[in-house]
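Before a colleague's protein record goes any further, I have to sign it off. What it holds is a sequence and that sequence's fold in token form. My question to you is simply how this chain folds and whether the tokens agree. Thanks in advance; the entry in question is below:
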Amino acid sequence: MKILFLTDNFPPEVNAPASRTYDHACEWIKSGHEVTIITCVPNFPKGKVYDGYKNRLYQTEKINGIKIIRVWSYITANKGFFKRTLDFISFSITSFIAGLFQKSDVIIATSPQFFTALSGRTLSILKRTPWIMEVRDLWPESIKTVGAMNDNMIIRFFEWQEKRCYNSARKIIVVTDSFKKTLVARGINAEKIEVVKNGVNKDLFRPMGKDINLINELGLEQKKIIGYVGTHGMAHKLDFILDCAKKIQGKNNYHFLFIGSGAEKEHLLKIKNKNNLKNVTFLDSVPKEDVSRYLSILDLSLINLKKSKLFTTVIPSKIFENAGMEIPIIMGVEGEAQEIVESYGAGLCFEPENEKDFMKKINLLLNDRDLYDSCKKGGKKLSVDFDRKELAGNMLDIIKSAVCLNNK
């Protein structure tokens, strides 16, 4: 098959959508299929073009057999609703134009924002090619949840367009069971919705010894390191973690390490500096190939989201990468993600934004060696069941079924 995949995030960007799409595409190439990715120049999350790239109208490259077409888009940092929306719309337009000239048997367009899906849907109509919508986030509902915008005419228009995309797609691939239940409750045909959860690339994320040189370089000798690696956004409620760090400063050897960028990072740095938090370190994002090195020094992996009913439907991809490295997880997310972590015994979960519960669970994990070792074993089991190579094969079967339906 010739697979045309539209995504506004792709390596060398290191966020979850970029990693998932790349890993899947590599497996599809190995299975003998042709994969063309239409994306923009790497700039997430700071809105700055990566070294070695320019924001040109059209440019191509090849990585591991994947044909990559990078198109121009309006570039801005990952903050501010209106500028980000301009970014999304511009990519929707330029990806559509580029897609017109690509031969394909199937078109896949992925969220988290659905303007990419609009491009995929329109291409499908004009090219008379089946299209698949991959739903990584219930956008625009998530905009309201994090407080970026209240319910208004614009949001309702986006929701109308969102439903049109769901109805026109040959298949819908969601990343959680909860997403499927939500879409079915909205009247979307359950038979067209398939679940392919996130997973771990076990070639990249596997058990390894602590990088002592890195620990020394960061000045974290003799510390119990609780690390957060990923986007510092409105949804992640990391100011709550800083409030907890402030209250235990000087009382133990716990140290909080934050790695990444995002809309809230500047605000978080101000909180750290204002309170003179010596038990907190912030680092910028690191290249994908270096992430495991930084994860290796963690005693606990922190995963946190704002307390919200919507976030009970998500499964943060960090779960799988840390499980693959057998790092016990401390997680402030309820719902489906909590069920996975607890069923495998890969860590402990606390009630989001509950300081007392958070500190209780951290103390349990860091002071009970048997529990700690048990969580490492649980992570190993989890990573086996969520091996991304297997999940890529599952998604390929769904793609094949969509093409077969079109040929009947």
User: Anything to note?
Assistant: The two ends are 16 Å apart (CA to CA).
